[in-house]
Design a protein that fits this description.
The chain has 312 residues and is an alpha/beta fold. Helices cover 45% and strands 12% of the residues. A 6-stranded parallel sheet has the order 2-3-4-5-6-7. Strands 1-8 form a two-stranded parallel ribbon. β4, α4 (120-131) and β5 (139-143) form a beta-alpha-beta unit. The longest helix is centred in the C-terminal third of the chain and has 20 residues, at 237-256. It is globular and about 50 Å long. It starts with 10 loop residues before the first strand and ends in a 7-residue tail after the last helix.
Amino acid sequence: MNQTERQKLTGLIAAPFTPMDKRGEINTGLIEQYATKLKKDGVGGAFVCGTTGEGMLMTSEERKAVAEKWIEQQNDNFKVIVHVGTTSAKQSKKLASHAEKAGAYAVGCMGPMFLKPSRVEDLVAFCAEVAAGAPDLPFYYYHIPSVSNVNLPMLEFLDLAKSVIPNLAGIKFTYRNMMEMFQCLRAEEGKWDILHGFDEELLCGLSLGAKGAVGSTFNYLAPLYLKMMKAFQNGNMEQARALQYQSIKFIEILIDYGGGVIGGKPVMKMIGLDCGPLRAPARNLSPEEFNQYEKELKMIGFFDWMKERVKV
């Protein structure tokens, strides 16, 4: 499949938490219910086994099991992208090959944290080996310097990678350099699929031309973001800004309780989809912290924001 044959992703792609039982073992039995909830909320897909999904804290076999269960939930309106990144190109290539055989829509990979590449050429070489494991699937580079500590110019990456990664689709862009993101969106007359990665700044990404976004808070606040996107599309910027500010009020509290992963997984329990504890070295909130967290979210009306679904 070449670039011209691929459709770009649009709308919201959730970055799901990996359900685990009380012992910290993966609980794939919850994934069908999880996917059903996302679909009802209007989410168009899932980017699994990434940062939010604790992919780097799972074994390869666990990651395969989680990916397979999510892929079972895939349909024309709900696409599954499997994150296959590790510190080993060979291991990542095997995970990519598995994702392709299992029927995933696409694969993604962040830069390797160990002996991180200092040149774009080295990052491209790493990604080329990984992408070759799933040659018939779109490949997305996952740009998230705050986690990977790999921060190389993405415009240069696209320019060098296009000739050596035939299935390169674009970038999951989770970085606050909006100028660089805009350059990538405009590169080669908008050829690349650039997915916005910061939920609290989604409106900024939309204003620059982003059509799709991947985020952890879409797991529970998709109705709010879809309402915001609809307001933006209708030219109602005042409403769009007000809705973005609502998400920011939530994310301020989320950060106080550990951020998107540590603070996010407990929210799933609050909404009735208990995804269990986080694995070490991530910490889990104490019962007292959990109760205070829930109280603060109630105070800002968080649990009401999830109820209104919109047609898009």
